[in-house]
Predict the structure of CDGP domain-containing protein.
Amino acid sequence: MKLCTVGGLAVMLAAGGLIVAAPPASAGCLYGGPVISKCDGPVQPDGTWQRCTAVYNYVPSGLSSHLVPVKRCDLMGPGHDYPFDFTFTDPPTHIDD
């Protein structure tokens, strides 16, 4: 029984050490303004990253209306230009924490 407890503790400590030693994901988010959220994924070896934005979409419904969130994800970085979509591309660089 003691051997199992010691072995289990050793495995937990080893796993915890790997988690602490892992490099950060280098992803960040911005909230508010014209969007609900704007988040960047990690930068890939080719210099690109995925950016996801969430915006409100106005939906009329009879005598009332409501806002529905809409999510858009696309690649950013070298070779990916979106010249007229400033809500998506601002800032044009990677968002870091």
Summary: DSSP finds two helices and four strands in the chain. Strands lie at 28-32, 35-40, 49-61, 64-76. Residues 2-21 form the longest helix (20 residues).
